[in-house]
Amino acid sequence: MNTLRLAVAQNIVPGDPYDPRGLHAAGAEIRRLMAEAAAAGARLVQFPEGSLVYPDKHVMSSGGPDVVGEADWSRAAWDVIGEQSEAIAACAGRLGIWTAFGAPHRLTAPNRPLNGYYVVSDQGELVDRYDKRFLSHTEISHMFTPGSRPLAFEVDGFRFGTALCIEVQFPELFDEYERLGVDCVLISTDGVATSPATIAQAYGAMYCYWVGLSVAAQNSTVAASGIVAPGGAWLARCAADGRPGISVADLERESTDPQIMVALQYARPWRRSARAGLYDARVVHGDPRSDPRAGF
Question: pTM higher than 0.85 for the full model?
Answer without folding.
Answer: yes
